[in-house]
Specification:
5 helices, six-stranded mixed β-sheet, single chain, 251 residues, alpha/beta, three-stranded parallel β-sheet, Purple Acid Phosphatase, chain A, domain 2
């Protein structure tokens, strides 16, 4: 979320990866540029710092000219269920020590205005198309409605290694491995300032709720945290064996 979030991620991702014994790092970075969208420069900086794959969401096209940059970013994918005419990759396949992880994001259709097709059917389509090209699937549920995220988790239980929700910025406490082996979390939470309202300065947001007037909502600066989760995947089955929520507070 904005400069505070992306800077802390860039500072800590390599050491945190080593501390946790993580083989691959997937980050949603759709709010990295001023809290809305991403640029090529920011994407390259995050990948250089140690992020292996970048996913995006409903703010994918917020930054001017990014639609002309995304095709050149091999470790970045946009939501798969946007109209097929949209530029960008619908999925990624990243590899570590012979293990191939397919990554895809699907947008929810409740309360989000960006045009998209059915996220459930799109997940079905890509899981079928990519099954011979990967060893496991990581599905990001970029959705406003918690019920839609949970429904997708149950729908893909036993077929995806993980279904992890994003978009609502607040980490949830429901992380677990579902009965058939899919790690699920309703929302991973943001990497950014938590002395805020979803990453924005408290004062202007509260004032807007009180009087209804439009204001600028600058990105906040305090209580910077990295939030996410650590998932272990059995290479033989392509399913999750454990789940742990991660939260790192900046000193």
């Amino acid at each position: 979320m904005g400069r505070p979030g992306r800077t802390f991620v860039a500072e800590r991702v390599a050491s945190l990866k080593a501390e946790l014994g993580a083989d691959l790092v997937v980050a949603n970075a759709e709010n990295a540029a001023g809290g809305a969208g991403i640029t090529k420069k920011i994407a390259v900086a995050l990948i250089t710092a140690g992020v292996d794959a970048i996913t995006l969401g409903d703010h994918v096209w917020d930054q001017k000219n990014f639609e002309n940059e995304i095709d050149g970013l091999e470790q970045v994918c946009r939501p798969a269920n946007l109209p097929e005419q949209n530029p960008g990759r619908t999925h990624l396949i990243i590899e570590n020590d012979g293990f191939r992880l397919a990554i895809l994001t699907v947008l929810g259709r409740n309360y989000l205005t960006l045009k998209s097709s059915c996220p459930f059917k799109m997940a079905d389509t890509l899981l079928a198309e990519l099954k011979d090209q990967c060893d496991a699937f990581f599905v990001e549920a970029h959705m406003e409605a918690t019920s839609e995220k949970i429904a997708l988790g149950w729908y893909l239980d036993g077929r995806a290694a993980a279904v992890v929700g994003t978009h609502t910025h607040a980490p949830t406490a429901d992380g677990r491995v579902l009965p058939q082996g899919t790690a699920f979390l309703s929302d991973a939470g943001m990497c950014g300032p938590y002395h805020s309202v979803l990453g924005r300065d408290v004062g202007p947001v509260v004032a807007s709720f009180l009087d209804g007037m439009k204001r600028r909502f600058p990105v906040a600066e305090d209580d910077i945290r990295i939030c996410g989760c650590l998932i272990n995947i059995d290479a033989a089955t392509g399913l999750a064996t454990s789940f742990e929520r991660i939260e790192v507070v900046k000193d």
